[in-house]
Structures are given as C-alpha cells and as structure tokens.
Amino acid sequence: MPIDDPTTATPSEIDEELARLGIEHAKATDTVNGLTARVHRLVNDGMAEYATELQPRIEQARQTIAECEAAARPLDAEFERRGGWTRAWLVLNTGGHVHRTMECRTCFPSTRFAWLTQLSGHDETEIVEQAGKAACTECYPSAPVDIRNQPRRIKTPEQLAREAEKAERAKAKAAKAITAPDGTPLRTKGYGQIDTEFTARRSYLDALAYARYLTRASIAHHRDTIAEYREDAQLILAALAAKHGRTEDDLRAELAPKVEARWKREYK
Ligand SMILES: [Zn+2]
Q1: How far away, in angstroms, is 141 Cα from ligand 1 center?
Q2: Is 169 among the domain residues?
Q3: 101 and 74 part of one domain
Q4: Ligand 1 center from residue 161 Cα (angstroms)
Q5: C-alpha 44: how far from its chain's center?
Q6: 141 located within any domain
Q7: What residues make up the domain containing 154?
Q8: Taxonomically, which superkingdom (predicted)?
Q9: How far is it, in rounded angstroms, from Cα 72 to Cα 211?
C-alpha cells in the first residue's frame, strides 16, 4: 500500500512498499529490454514499420519505471534519515540462508532472494534466533552455536500471505457459522443439525410460522408437534442471541415481523 507519510511508517511498512515497487520496477525493466531487443531485430530485418508499433508499449514501461523510482525515493530517504535499520533476506533455494544484505559474498548476482520485510527493524539477535540454522555465518558471525542448531522459524512472504488468506477464510466461515450457546453443534428436532446462521434464521421463522399454522388447524390434534417446533425455535433463538451477545427478548422482538410475514405468505 502506498505510504502517505514515511516519517510515521514502521520499517516493515516502508520495506514492504519498497519490495512491491522493486518487483514492479523489475517487471517493467524486463518489458523494456524484451521489446527493445525485438525492435532491433525488426529494424535489422527491414521491418522498421512494425518496430514503430512497439514504441508506445516501451514508453509505457519506461513511464512505470520512472514512477516506481519516484515513489521509492522518499522511502529510501527515510531509511537514510533514520540511520538505517536491520533488514533480512532469505535465499529462495531449498536450505537457502538468511542474510543481512544481498551483497553478501556467499551469494551470486543470479541468486534469488525473498525480502523478509516482516523482520525489518527487528533486533538482530531476534532475526538470528528465528533464522536458526539458516542464519548465514558470514552475515551473522556472532550467532551462538545452540541457535545455529535450531530449525528455521522464519516464514517467506508467500507463506505469510497464504497464512493470512487462510485466516481470512476461517474468519469469514466463522462469521457465517452458528452453534449452540455452549459451542456444541446446534441440533434441532425438525431441522436436524444447523450449521449456518442463514439456515438458523430461516428455520426459526419457519418453525414459528408452522407452529402457528398447526395451532389454528387443531391444537388438540397437533399438541406434541407444536411443542417440538416451538422448542426448536427457542433453541435457535438462544443460539442467535449468544452469537451476537443480545438478549432473547430483544432478538425475538426483532424477528417477530418476519415471522408474521412468513406466516402470511406460507399459511394464511
Ligand atoms: Zn550472508
């Protein structure tokens, strides 16, 4: 996310944005290089008119590069202004190491890194501790031996993104779910086990409208069934009230017009 005021942003926020800009910059650079090479080939082959058609795309990619650089400038300046902060990179190979800098002499120009922006500005002892055996001995020569024997606990940005997505999905599912007030499954006689709030609300309306219908039809004949549906409605109401931290009376009053509408539509 673009940063409005770098002076109040955390090192992680600034580096996360710099990492994003860096990726966009690299993509645009690839585009310029690839298209420029094509232009040269076309000109050499005497097809200069096709080459001209590629110019707008090259210009657009150059524009993106310039924009990325402009956006990165105040962020780099803030890094300098604060006298820098700790940063860490993970080499993207199996058994890749965590480094303090991409200039580490154990790495090569072709080495692919993940920038661990979540650790930016963190204490170096903490970074080493989380890196465990993945800590580069060149970058962190003072890392204690017992920490070097521990497994790596640092996650890659991709892993973090996946975990955040999973948590988001679980949250959305929990928002839709319903249980009995004690957290056990919400079991009813007429509707079986109810797992979602949507079904709970619909069943509540149905149960009360149907109980009312049976009451009108013959209260003596349907006594047990009426009692069962009323019981179901009560169970559902208690579950809904518990989920939303409301009183049953409050919720019953709120749902009453819907019960009425349901009754009119289905049974009257
Ligand atoms: Zn290193």
Answers
A1: 9
A2: no
A3: no
A4: 25
A5: 49
A6: yes
A7: 89-158
A8: Bacteria
A9: 67
**Cα 87 to middle of ligand 1, angstroms:** 12
Within a domain: 134: yes
Give residue for tokens 């996360």: 16
Identify whether the C-beta of residue 183 lies closer than 8 Å to the C-beta of residue 242: no
How many whole angstroms from 128 Cα to the centroid of ligand 1? Answer: 12
How much distance in Å is there from the Cα of 6 to the middle of ligand 1? 28
Same domain? For 153 and 209 the reply is: no
Distance from residue 164's CA to the centre of ligand 1 (Å):
29
Distance from residue 124's CA to the centre of ligand 1 (Å): 13
Residue 56 token pair: 């707008």
Using the mean position of ligand 1's atoms as its centre, give its distance from the Cα of residue 251 in Å. 61
- Centre of ligand 1 to C-alpha 86, Å, is 14
Per-residue pLDDT of the chain (268 residues; tens, 9 = 90+): 688 899 999 999 999 999 999 999 999 999 999 999 999 999 999 888 888 999 999 999 999 999 999 999 999 999 999 999 999 999 988 888 999 999 999 988 888 899 999 999 999 999 999 999 999 999 999 888 888 889 888 888 788 889 999 999 999 999 999 999 999 999 999 999 999 999 999 999 999 999 999 999 888 899 999 999 999 999 999 999 999 999 999 999 999 999 999 999 988 7
Neighbours of 36 (CB within 10 A): 14
* C-alpha separations of 123 from 78, 127, 137 in Å: 19, 6, 17
In a domain? residue 165: no
From the list 131, 120, 125, the residue with the least C-alpha distance to 153 is 131
Cα 139 to ligand 1 centre (Å): 4
Q: Which helix (H) or strand (E) holds 91?
A: strand 89-91
